[in-house]
């Protein structure tokens, strides 16, 4: 009788584990629906919050003001220990707000810094952005940033700065919109939760056998 009760108890615990374990990805994001959310600009651009026309809602707009490259820097909520986001994704939406000049290839370069060390990746295709919103995504791993597993892990352990190149055309002529900048972790596989449950069952079974020997 005790064995039956114990098994039922273990089954209940496993069911609870599977029901309450976090299966949703962690995420940090800026939607720019209420403002610029503490994003900052380089000396080559001016920032403005545009309350409508985003993807959806409001968006961040950066306008070119000189011949230097313009980029934006992420606020504090995207910095620090980002180890949980290793193998996750970094993404943002962008579009060309104004300007009809020649496209600038470095548009879409994302750089992650840990002090004086950095890794970069160009996550936008040639001839981006267009006049329509498009989403650009990269995996936060060694392959995505063309580096070593040790290097990307070291950077993510203490991110001190994230920059996104929004210079999209050659010359001082353009304005670029950005929306929905997001970091997302990997969603846990259901199999990993089942393995956790199986381990719990095994541990309970061993403990029960030991108790029965006494």
TrEMBL record:
Top-level taxon of origin:
Bacteria
- According to the record, the signal peptide region is 1-25
Is the keyword Signal assigned to this protein? yes
Domain (Ice-binding protein C-terminal) spans: 187-209
- Keyword match Signal: yes
What are the UniProt keywords, alphabetically? Signal
Matching entries from NCBIfam families are given as:
PEP_CTERM
This protein is called what?
A: Ice-binding protein C-terminal domain-containing protein
What organism is this sequence from? Lacipirellula limnantheis
